[in-house]
Structures are given as C-alpha cells and as structure tokens.
Amino acid sequence: MRIALLADVGVRSTTFAEEIGRITVFASRLCGAAVRRPLRMRRFVDEVFYLGVLSLVIICVCGLAVGAVLGLQGYNTLERFGATDALGTVVGLSLIRELGPVLTALLTTGRAGSATTAEIGTMVATEQLDGLRMMSIDPLHYVVMPKALAMVFVMPLLSALFIVCGITGGYLVGVYWGVDPGSYITSLETAVTFWDEVVGSLLKSLCFGILVGLIATYRGYFSAPTSQGVSSATTATVVQASVSILIFDYFITALWGV
Amino acid sequence: MPDADNHLQLDRVTMAFGDRPVFENLSCSFPRGEISVILGGSGSGKSTILRLIGGLIHPVSGRILVEGEDITHLHERQMTAVRMKLGMLFQGGALLDSLSVFDNLALPLREHTDADETAIAAAVRDRLDAVGLEDVGALLPNQLSGGMRKRVALARAIMRDPVILLCDEPFSGLDPISTRQIEALLVEINQRRGITIVVVSHHVDSTMRMAGRIMILLPDAVIAGTRDELRHHRDPRVSAFLTADRDNPADLLYPVEQRPGDLR
For chain B, first and last CA: distance in Å? Predict the structure, then answer.
C-alpha cells in the first residue's frame, strides 16, 4: 500500500518535472523564434487584432461593471465613516493594483487564450502544422510565435483600458450617489503615483500576458490530434492559466509590492 | 548501401508509437522517376512510411535514405534542406484554413524565394491551371469541395518543383470522377516533370492503372513488384487483396507481436 503510494507520488513528480522541462524548452524555442528573421510583423498585427481588438467590448463592459460595483460598495462603506470623498482612491487603487491586471488576464484567458489553444490544436489535428513543416516552414515561427507575442503585447493595453473603464464606472456611480466629481478625481490623483501604481500595474499585466501566451500556445501545440484532444487542451489552458494568474499575482505582489 | 536507382530507401526500420509497435525491420525502396503505390490494410503503417520519409516522425531503429542521404537522425533545422526536395499531399489537404487558396500556394515561394509578387502570381496561376482550377484563387479552403481541396493541395505540393512527391491517400473520400482526375494529374505530373511519386492508397483500381511499382504491406512480409508481377504472385493473399476477395480474405490485421523478424 505504502509502496504503491510512493510509486504514485514518484510517477506524478516525474511527470510534473517532465512537463516543466518541456514548457521551458518550448519557451526558449519561442524566444529564439521571436528574434529570428523574418519578423512576421503582418501576422503579429493580425493576431493583435484577433486577440486585442476583438476583446475590446468584453473588456470595456466588464471594466465598467466592476468599477460600478466597486463604486457602490466603496460608497456604502465610506459613508459610514463620512469619507465618501476618498471614493476615487478606493476605486482607483483597487483597480490599478489588483483587479485591473488580474480580471483582464482572467477575461483574456477565457476569450482569447482558449481560442488560441483551440486554433493551434485544430491546426495540429488537421495536419496544417505538418503541412508547414513539409514546406520547410517552422510552425513555431510562423503560427505560434506571433500569437504568443501578440498576447504579451495586448495584455497591458487591455488592462489599462479595463482600469480606465472601471474608474469611469466608479465615477458614474459615485457621482450618482452624491460624491463630488472634483473630490473623486482629486483623491484619485493624490493616491496614484506613476511609477509605483501605473508602471507596476502594467508590468504585472505584462507578466500575465507572458503566462497566458505561453500556456495557451503550449497546450495547443502539444494537444492530441483529435477533437477530444483539442477540447482537453482548451480546458487545460483556461484552468491552468487562471490558477497560475492567481498564484503569480500573490508572488508578484509579495515580492514587488505592486 | 545507398542505391542510385532508388530515390528513397527504408533500411530495417522499426517504428512504434509509445508502447504500440507499427512495424519491425521494414526494408523497402522506391525507384527514381516512377510512381510507387503502397497498399495495405488499415493500421499497417502505410502513412507512417510517408511521415518517416518526411522526417515528421522518427523511427525507433533503422535508416531512412532520401537521394542516398541518411536523414534518420537529422535535426529539424537540417531537415529543412531535405524537405526542399520533397512535396507532400496530405490526406485532408492540410491547407491553411486562414489563408485563401492563392496565399496557400504562394506561401512556399514567399518564404523561400526572392520572387516578386508578379512572378509568384504567375507561378500560382500555372499550378492552378495544371490541376484544372483556374478561378478558385480568392476562395478559402473551406469553400472548396473535397476533390477541389485535394487538387489545390496537390498544386501546393508541386509549387517548389519537388523531386519527390509523397501522397497520403489522395483518393480517399472522392467520387469516381474526382478520383480519376487526381489519378490523371499524378500520372501527368510524373511524366511531365519526372518526379518520383510515392502514393499511399486503398484504391486498388487506381493503383493498377497508374503504379509503376506496387508494394503491399502484409502482416509478415512486404511484397513488392510491378503490376504484372503482383497479378501473378504466388502468395494467395496478394491476389485476395488485389481482387478484394472476401471468400478468401487476406490476413490484413496487424497484431505485430505475431510478426516474425524481418519484413522485406
């Protein structure tokens, strides 16, 4: 019984170590592909459109909704202490330091990360990547690298947009409930510093972009060439990227203080 | 030893996917400038042979020679040069579904040549003419019928004038007329361009019409020869396979563990 348990732990540990090694090699090959010519600018721009521009609506709507809820909860809490003028600080800092990067990464994982995995996985299943190989074109360079880079590029931009929409949502709700518009903006300006909050927030988003881009492309690239394989890979992307975002968020916050 | 008359050779190749063996000690060769057809039951490893030649998968043991060069252990980047000589028609076409037919055909030229767009457009038109599809350049692959997709894939496979063309089940899922069209195209490409063509197929009628050399993968042997040689082959399984004789079925399922050693 104990030996079986030990063997099971051993197998799982080996599999985990193998997976870490494989994703590390994949990441290094992606980095190599990113600096290799041709630079695939056209495909990169296309991917920025698919991953970024087509996510604008969901990011704006969710940003407004989250900001509005924060505004409402913040107002109700601050009203007890007669400090509703600080609503801009509460909404702004919550969004910039935490909710903006994290929720944007989770939303992007659901909308664009899963689509990336499914698309690459389908290309594996329909032999399109093998077709590229047979034309002496590296699929990692032609298909995967532009998608991963686009994810890294769009994540901070989408996060910034989410934050702006959230602050706007909080403003609208706060002003509706009687908060002075000037106080909201002033408290926001006072609390938010460029380097600590804004740059820190963008760097956090950048890390999440690398994480989601890597997991989504890795899962698609190594998916089994069957419909079930593609579906499992897509599910794995959403689950693993979401959990990784939350775990990395803790460590980034603890180590960088962002 | 590499053989000058044989464009492609597999020398005692053993292949397995994980714990599942496909074939053991398989040796075969494909003559230069001829159409060779590989026949065999489902799961016998016919398509695997093409993927091994293309370097898309690697054998457990044995050697694979393309134009006399041992490609068995070549790195992916080294395979790029070898694949310049190869064209491959995949079973499903493997056309990039995000690109138009024109862009699919233009892709290998844009990637590997300095040709300007005018020259690329002329080359694409030429290949589309060759497969009898002049007006489909603007369409996406999912707007094509199965037969048209196969012909476009064939056009893409010959875009860079390969010396060896590998065709994986080019007739599968096609109606009889489309089958005859693809068959005629392969014969024409072979005769006009002198390309060595290796076809994996289940289609015995087409095979008997077009093949210069036929190779049948049986569970315990590989039987190769010309059409006439195989028609009169003494092994009853060969004639059973070629005539689809259901009263005298060939043992075409492949329980590899029952196989003796060498397949030649």
Answer: 15
Would you tell me how many other CB atoms lie within 10 Å of the CB of residue B125? 14
CA distance A203 to B44: 54
Q: Is residue A21 part of a domain?
A: no
Q: Give pLDDT tens digits for B105-151.
A: 999 999 999 999 999 999 999 999 888 888 899 999 999 988 899 99
Tally of domains in chain A: 1
Residues of A in contact with B84 (CB under 8 A): 136
Nearest-CA distance from A16 to chain B in Å? 19
Nearest CA in chain B to A128: B94
For residue A17, tell me if it sits in a domain.
Answer: no
| Residue whose C-alpha is closest to residue B182's, from B161, B207, B163, B160 | B207
User: Is the CATH number of domain B1-85+200-264 3.40.50.300?
Assistant: yes
Q: What is the DSSP string of A144-182?
A: IHHHHHHHHHHHHHHHHHHHHHHHHHHHHHHHHTT--HH
Whole-angstrom Cα distance, residue A203 to residue A197?
10
This prediction's pTM: 0.89
> CB-based contacts of B221: which residues, under 8 Å, 6+ apart?
B235, B263, B264
Domain ranges of chain B: 1-85+200-264
Q: What 3-state class would DSSP assign to B171?
A: coil
User: Measured between alpha carbons, how far is A84 from A72 in angstroms, rounded to an integer?
Assistant: 11
